[in-house]
Amino acid sequence: MFDVGRSIFYVPFLFFFIFLSFSFFPAASLAQDQPDTATEENTCAECHQSSDDERLKKPAADWELSVHKKAGVSCKDCHGGDPSSYDAAMEAKAGFTGKPKKEDIPALCARCHADSKKMRVYNLRTDQYSYYQESIHGKRLAGERDKKVPTCVDCHGTHAVFSRKDPRSPVHRPNIIKTCSKCHSDKAYMAEYKVPTDQYDGYLQSYHGKLLVEKEDPRVPTCADCHSGHGAAPPGAKDVTEVCGNCHSVTAEFFSKSKHSLAMEETGKPRCVNCHGKHNIPFPGVEKFTGDGPDDCRSCHPPDSPAFKEGVRLKGMLETADASVRKARDAVAELKKKGGTGFEISNLGDKLDDANTKLVKTVAMTHTMHIPLLEKRTEEITGAAKKVHEEIEAIFKELKIRNIGLIFTWVFLLLFIWALNEKRKSIRKEALRRKRTEGSRGRRAEDRGQKTEDRRQRAGDSGGQE
Questions:
Q1: pLDDT higher than 50, residue 144
Q2: 3-state secondary structure string, the chain?
Q3: Tell me, what's the pLDDT at 461?
Q4: CB contact at 8 A, 11 and 5
Q5: Cα Rg for the chain, rounded, in angstroms?
């Protein structure tokens, strides 16, 4: 028969054994899955950090700051050896390789960075090595053993490797252009490759460069966006439109519907770079339609050609539309300055914003070179801006009438106040006059009474004597 009292006696022992199981066995299996790199002895770092030689000390100090240190990547993972022992740390039998050869570095980094299982926890791509092998850099390194081309460490750093989100990283977005320029702006270094070395200076002068350097706009393309990062290569003639279209997708769509697009398919020109430049890309203005620069329309279309005349016409349409929007916007600002806030003018601002947005899109649409469509749109923009300006003019007239009415009101009020004051003074003057008159009459009455009394008294005195 089941003895409840005896069963209860064994319950504490049961919980004790369960506690032991969860305390030891799972911890042991977890330790097998995740090596304890935090407590692992690292004689490499200890020796280098205690060295008086700065060349040996700096790598260890840089590694302490790196993302690799935080991720548990130690010296042996790149250099081999046995860091748990001072004696065997640099032994060949322990796999010590020392400083990796330049041509071996991409494959060395790829042992981790091409492993999807290892990179999954950091949400990092694993295709960099394959892209690098197909790049101009990778092909020259592998095929021609060109040791001047960059490898992973030249762009990302050797021991002080930081996340690309870290401003200290050479591949942090605002720093990429400087990183690439270390080689590509060095004339002596690039002499044998016969490629230009003015890209960095040109980019700094460009609209892209100013937005990146001065405002750190993350939307602005860097070298890696146009040439690819690990798969670095110059865009081919047919690829340029696609590359630019990655950002300027709407403009690229308009260009694909133009005569220029057909011409590019047949002759390879005009591409984006033929009209806008390569690295020194200025903010495009309507002056390109009639300018005589190497990237302007005249460089292909003579001034007496129908195409150039269309450009002149298009420039005029855009300038008229832009001037109308600016004039209306200035009028709104002037209205606010002169006290027009008492009127409902928020809808005018909305109308101008719509007109300006339409103008921006119309500028992009010039890549279609569809003159009738562009003429219709610019007329709509000009008409909308003129209506806003007319409404503002009507408000100014109403404001003028109100101001005149206000002046008359103030004049009337001042005259009324003056009249009231004059009336007040007249009343006071009349009251004073009456008071003086009554006083004078009272004195005369007293005098007459006194005289009568005196006569009576004299008459009495005369009677008594008789």
A1: yes
A2: CCCHHHHHHHHHHHHHHHHHHHHHHHHHHHHHHCCCCCCCCCHHHHHHHCCCCHHHHHHHHHHHHCHHHHHCCCHHHHHCCCCCCCCCCCCHHHCCCCCCCHHHHHHHHHHHHCCHHHHHHHCCCCCHHHHHHHCHHHHHHHHCCCCCCCCHHHHHCCCCCCCCCCCCCCCCHHHHHHHHHHHHCCHHHHHHHCCCCCHHHHHHHCHHHHHHHHHCCCCCCCHHHHHCCCCCCCCCCCCHHHHHHCCCHHHHHHHHCCHHHHHHHHHCCCCHHHHHCCCCCCCCCHHHHCCCCCCCHHHCCCCCCHHHHHHHHHHHHHHHHHHHHHHHHHHHHHHHHCCHHHCCCHHHHHHHHHHHHHHHHHHHHHHHCCHHHHHHHHHHHHHHHHHHHHHHHHHHHHHHHHHHHHHHHHHHHHHHHHHHHHHHHHHHHHHHHHHHHHHHHHHHHHHHHHHHHHHHHHHHHHHHHC
A3: 64
A4: no
A5: 47
Residue 337 zone, left/alpha/beta (φ > 0; ψ -120 to 50; rest)? alpha
pLDDT digits (tens, 9 = 90+) for 292-306: 888 999 999 999 999
CA distance 343 to 327: 19
Q: How far apart are CA 50 and CA 131, in angstroms?
A: 40
Question: What's the pTM?
Answer: 0.73
Contact in structure between 228 and 134 (CB atoms under 8 Å) = no
CA-to-CA separations, 65 to 45, 47, 339, 387, in angstroms, rounded? 13, 17, 60, 63
- Among candidates 161, 154, 65, which has minimal Cα distance to 112? 161
* CA within 13 Å, CB half, 179: 23
CA distance 108 to 78: 7
293's tokens: 């620069």
Mean pLDDT value of segment 390-419: 88
CA gap 382, 390 in Å, rounded = 12
- In degrees, to the nearest 5, what angle opens at C-alpha 193 toward C-alphas 188 and 198? 60
The answer to whether 161 touches 69, Cβ cutoff 8 Å, is no
CA distance 161 to 258: 47
| CB distance 291 to 297 below 8 Å | yes
List, for residues 20-55, the tens digit of each pLDDT value.
454 444 433 333 333 444 446 788 999 999 999 999
CB atoms near residue 153 (< 10 Å): 17
CATH topology of domain 306-438: Butyryl-CoA Dehydrogenase, subunit A; domain 3 (1.20.140)
Domain extent listing, the chain: 1-34, 41-91, 100-234, 306-438
